[in-house]
Structure formats: C-alpha cells, structure tokens
Amino acid sequence: MPELPYEERVAAAFVELADTLVRDLGVSGLLYVLAAHCVDLLDVAAAGVLLGMPQGRGVEVGASDECTQALVRLGVEQDEGPCRDCCQARAPVAEVRLDDGVADRCWPRFAPAARRLGFTSVAAVPLRRQDHAVGALVLFRSGPGTLDGGGLRLAQALADVATIGVLQQRTVHELITLVAQLQHALDSRVVIEQAKGCLAQRHDTTLD
C-alpha cells in the first residue's frame, strides 16, 4: 500500500490526537502516538514525552522507542535535560548540539547518555495549558543539519492538540470518580435509612 502524501499524514496525525476520547487511548497511549507522529512527520530520529501528573503524583513518560523512553526517564531521575528546562521555562528549548561542551555543562549526565544512543542534537517544546507547562515533547536528531522553524512549529501544534486530549481524559476520569463517590454515598445512605427504620420499629420510637 503506497504511503500517504505528507499533507494527508499531517492531517491524520491531528485527527488521531484529537480523537482520544472516542478511541480511548489512555494517557500512555496518547504519549506514544504523539511521539510516533513526530518521528513520521519531522526530521527527527526519535521523540520522547514527559507529562507531569496531577497533585504531584510523579510523571508519565512516553517515547517512540524504549531506549529513548529510558533516556527521558534518566533526565527525570537526574533532574536535568531539555524536558526539565522546557517545563521550567514554559517555553521551547531551541535545538542544542550534543557534540560540544555547552550540552555537557548544562546536562552532564543526560548529554553523554544521548550521544551514546547516536543522537547529535535535541530540542523541546512544552505541552502547555494557557501559560502553564504540564509536560514537554523532546525531539532527537541523529544526522547533520538542524530542525527548521517549520518543524518546531508543527511539533508545538501537535503537542498543543495532545495536551487538550490529556486534559480531556483527566476531566472525564475525575467526573467518573466523582460519580462513583456520589453513588457510594447514596448507597450508604440507603443502608443507614433502612437501619434507622428497623431500630425505630423495634424500640417503638420515631426516626428522628
């Protein structure tokens, strides 16, 4: 089957990322889909995604492959790397070469690990909600040249759509949890009222 033209693949990526509730991807599935589309559509060798969880419950990490996922998680554990910088600044991290001293000074553990995987440069864009960063999308290149501005803008657009999907899933999950809690409270109230009725009858007293 012939590959779809580039423009159609871009459109399909936005549709898939926006269709998270219908397809019930789950957060981890959504992060993988975002990373996979970046590798397909951008001039990058790999992509990883870092997502902060609500109420400080750690982070969720996804990537286009297992090695890249481990690299992103290393950045989390060592508290360094483009994902951390992107989230702290709430702004894109321009492409950084990994084969010079600047990267090693900024990320002394992350940069050498990235080079061992064959990556030559890295850039990142935030997963943002208004002026807050809920995570970051990091893009790895393994060849000469640079990622152009159009590529970074497309990466940011994909990240923005994915963020909407993540927030939608969280809202639905919170609503389901709330409904379950309310139902439990109602069920408990029924049992209490039944017990009150039994006691009132046994002791020939009022419900009050």
Topology of helices and strands:
Elements: H1 6-18, H2 20-23, H3 26-41, E1 46-52, E2 59-63, H4 66-78, H5 82-89, E3 93-97, H6 101-106, H7 110-116, E4 121-129, E5 132-141, H8 149-202
Antiparallel strand pairs: 1-2, 1-5, 3-4, 4-5
Describe this structure in words.
The chain is α+β, with helices and mostly antiparallel strands. It is about 60% helix and about 15% strand. It contains eight helices and five strands. It has helices at about 5-20, 20-25, 25-40, 65-80, 80-90, 100-105, 110-115, 150-200, and strands at about 45-50, 60-65, 95, 120-130, 130-140. About 30% of the residues are buried. The model is unreliable at about 170-185 (pLDDT under 50).
Q: What's the quick description here?
A:
The protein is an alpha+beta fold and 208 residues long.
Q: Name the shape in a single word.
A: elongated
Helix-strand category = alpha+beta
Can you write the helix and strand succession as a string? HHHEEHHEHHEEH
Radius of gyration over C-alpha positions, nearest whole angstrom: 24 Å
Mean pLDDT: 82
Percent range for helical residues?
Answer: 55-70%
The main pleated sheet reads as: 5 strands, antiparallel
Number of helices: 8
Give keywords.
single chain; 208 residues; alpha+beta; 8 helices
